[in-house]
Write the structure tokens for this entry.
Amino acid sequence: MKLKLLIITILFNCNLYSQFGGPIIIPSDINGLNNIFSADLDGDGDMDVLSTSKTDNKIVWYENEDGEGTFSNNHIVSMNNDYGAINYVYIADLDNDNDNDIVAAYDYGLVWFENLNGLGIFSEAKLISYDVDRAIQTKAIDIDDDGHKDIVCSNIYNDSQVTWSKNIDGLGNFGPAQRIAGPGINGPNYF
């Protein structure tokens, strides 16, 4: 059954006594919600919401319009099927331009979407690596201490390994995936 509403519980401090409000219902047209992430995607200083849906393979984001939890309808980032099903997203500045980009882990590829103008307009998928097999989680961290966010990825199927891809120039150009652990480790899950 196709979801008509994406329900995300976002708690806001509603008074001086730290009592919290109830769930905020964000209208959506996605099918098979499997991941959410929150970050400022449009550079206005408040937290927006990003979601993925495995059944219809969408990555969408919802703008926090007033900073108090009034959300826009979804903005589609991708409905890409070139890399299999979407499993996980992570948000970080990968090209050192002071806005948040999106990293996406698919069944058969790891990609990123550049925030083109800092306002939440995203590029087409940019390949990081095909050297993943059903990636289940990814993070952007500076592995080699060069000031650039590299990509770490775990996958659990077939080869069960953890890899990292070096951000070569700090502009989002990545080297080949390098194995940190595996293959054959007992199911790296989430880190």
